[in-house]
Amino acid sequence: MKAWLLLAAIFSSGMAHAQASFAVATIRPSAAQVRFESDGETILLPASIKMRDVSIQTCIKWAYGVQRAQVLGPGLLTSEKYDIEAKADGPATEDQMKAMMQALLAERFGLAFHREKKELRSFALEVAKGGPKLGEKFKQATSDEVPWRANSAMGTTARALTMQEFADFLSGPTEKPVVDKTGLAGRWDFSFDFSKYMLDPPKGLDDFLLVLNTTLQGEMGLKLESEKDVVEVMVVDKVQKASAN
């Protein structure tokens, strides 16, 4: 029996290793910009992933579950945009797909990095005084909803996002790590629009952060609080343009 279990474990390990890379992957320069989205578009299907107008940094963020401020490296991480289509041998979980994307980054982009701890200025996403403004614009998602989010010219709309996923999204425009400290479990539907909170176009990041915080409090009853945290970062030692298909 013990020998059988050992053989089963070895076989299982071999299968897992075989699934560690995509069966086929096509990488081409971006054909068109995805409007209002600095991270392009990522569509995850049962056995494949499609990414449009994504940078190497965007791929790293998705594959390793990190935020923009946690990826440090050369300008190439964001200067080149790609369309990527990759297929697995069969149905795979999101975590398995992320492992395959990690392999793709190493194989096709030559990605090599090391991890460090750094103290960084960051934000905590918290519930504002008075509590969350639950209603039509901010409500608990139903169990059958598929996670989705899209920007517009003046705001964003999301379906079935966790608050940490929302914090991950906010880390892009704020240019700092954002940690969910709302205590709001589960998945949420929400939308907000900057229009009624912005008298003039923001003149810089500080102006934008003020508008963003005012909007979050007014629309959702949430706020961003500035703080300092020791954060693990990925320092990119080597990266290159995508190798030929």
TrEMBL record:
The keyword Signal applies. Residues 1-18 form the signal peptide. Keywords: Signal. It comes from the Bacteria. Pfam families: DUF3738 (PF12543). This is Soil-associated protein, TIGR03435 family. It comes from Bryocella elongata.
